[in-house]
Design brief:
mainly alpha
Length: 74
């Protein structure tokens, strides 16, 4: 059984990485750390919510790659 909080934890941990990436790229492109930080911060919240619902849809409705085996292929 996978708890919803696991999906939130995955969404947040992934967004930390993604938002840092957005911040650095925006900083490099614009030359402004402030603009990079704003874009990274906004993206953190919007993308976290989108990722959470994307994860829930995959978990609930999409059975691609799921087998009945006890062990998981890596």
């Amino acid at each position: 059984m996978i708890l919803k909080r696991r999906h939130w934890a995955k969404a947040i941990s992934w967004r930390v990485i993604g938002s840092l990436d957005s911040l650095v790229v925006a900083w490099i492109v614009t030359g402004s750390f402030e603009i990079g930080a704003i874009l990274g911060g906004v993206k953190f919240f919007t993308a976290t919510i989108l990722y959470y619902f994307h994860e829930r849809v995959w978990y609930k409705y999409i059975k691609f790659g799921i087998t009945n085996k006890q062990s998981e292929d890596i």
